[in-house]
């Protein structure tokens, strides 16, 4: 039987990870500060946990955190500082949140105050990738005692992963990858709109645009949404921008002057300001079309 995994954070990614792990035979419990989100996973086979102090217990020594940022991670786990965690044995916390390298250092320093082993495992692929076991993961160093069980879990969730030298390297490469994703989405939006202006119809664009070597994963993502006129939220625009903004301090710290980043960040932020309600990242295409009217 597989080891029990507990999850902190029942948002879109946390819920998808829980369902994937349950489908693959892992017993799963879920904690969320908004209790009803954890309760929504009961029908999928998850057991809700209502106190963070119970997240480590005699049945579970491995926890996955799926939270928004450094502040939410620290505030959620703050109660464990008083030593009231109900599990005295060795335990592992796996943080899948995307953080900038400085945020990563701050969270890692906080976690050292709690008696646990800690590793950062930022993932790419969103909820859909999680449900299909096709995430990409950047794994920080982990103690040998937990490495086999962590690798077993990662192979269930991910199609590819890389072992990095530090948590900060893992986060930095995830941030760089996110930058590429945002850029590829924006370029694909311009390419589709340009093809429309040339006079191609939707079917012609979807057939011919990805034929050449300029194709990217995010061109495929946008073309799929475009072809089906799909407005559902696969990855929210506000989270795309949250991840994109983590690039700025990385550029500053490395003294890299980007030709593209300032304009790209400005465009995505304008797209978000034009859509006050939560929308999918592909809404950037609608923003670009409106920009050209």
TrEMBL record:
Active site per database record: 174
InterPro entries on file: 6-PGluconate_DH-like_C_sf (IPR008927), 6PGD_dom2 (IPR013328), 6PGDH_NADP-bd (IPR006115), HIBADH-like_NADP-bd (IPR029154), HIBADH-related (IPR015815), NAD(P)-bd_dom_sf (IPR036291)
Keywords on record: NAD, Oxidoreductase
Molecular function per GO: NAD binding; NADP binding; oxidoreductase activity, acting on the CH-OH group of donors, NAD or NADP as acceptor
Chain ranges of the 6-phosphogluconate dehydrogenase NADP-binding domain: 4-142
Gene3D superfamilies referenced in this protein's UniProt entry, alphabetically: N-(1-d-carboxylethyl)-l-norvaline Dehydrogenase, domain 2 (1.10.1040.10), NAD(P)-binding Rossmann-like Domain (3.40.50.720)
Domain 3-hydroxyisobutyrate dehydrogenase-like NAD-binding: 170-282
Superkingdom, taxonomy of origin: Bacteria
The protein, known as: NAD(P)-dependent oxidoreductase
Source organism of the structure: Brenneria corticis
Lineage: Bacteria, Pseudomonadati, Pseudomonadota, Gammaproteobacteria, Enterobacterales
């Amino acid at each position: 039987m597989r080891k029990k995994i507990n999850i902190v954070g029942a948002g879109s990614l946390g819920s998808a990870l829980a369902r994937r792990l349950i489908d693959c035979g892992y017993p799963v419990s879920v904690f969320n500060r908004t209790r009803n989100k954890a309760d929504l996973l009961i029908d999928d086979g998850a057991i809700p946990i209502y106190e963070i102090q119970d997240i480590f217990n005699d049945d579970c020594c491995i926890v996955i955190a799926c939270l928004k940022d450094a502040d939410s991670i620290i505030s959620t786990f703050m109660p464990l500082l008083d030593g009231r965690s109900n599990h005295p044995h060795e335990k592992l916390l796996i943080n899948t949140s995307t953080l900038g390298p400085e945020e990563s250092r701050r969270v890692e320093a906080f976690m050292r105050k709690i008696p646990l082993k800690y590793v950062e495992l930022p993932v790419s692929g969103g909820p859909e990738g999680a449900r299909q076991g096709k995430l990409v993961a950047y794994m920080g160093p982990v103690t040998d005692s937990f490495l086999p069980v962590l690798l077993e879990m990662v192979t269930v969730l991910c199609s590819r992963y890389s072992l990095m030298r530090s948590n900060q390297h893992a986060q930095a490469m995830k941030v760089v990858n996110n930058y590429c994703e945002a850029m590829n989405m924006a370029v694909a939006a311009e390419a589709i709109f340009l093809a429309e202006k040339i006079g191609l119809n939707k079917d012609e664009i979807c057939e011919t645009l990805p034929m050449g070597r300029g194709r990217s994963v995010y061109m495929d993502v946008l073309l799929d949404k475009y072809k089906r006129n799909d407005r559902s939220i696969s990855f929210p625009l506000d989270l795309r921008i949250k991840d994109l903004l983590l690039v700025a301090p990385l550029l500053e710290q490395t003294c890299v002057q980007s030709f593209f980043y300032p304009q790209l960040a400005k465009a995505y932020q304008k797209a978000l300001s034009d859509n006050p309600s939560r929308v999918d990242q592909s809404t950037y295409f609608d923003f670009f079309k409106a920009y050209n009217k």
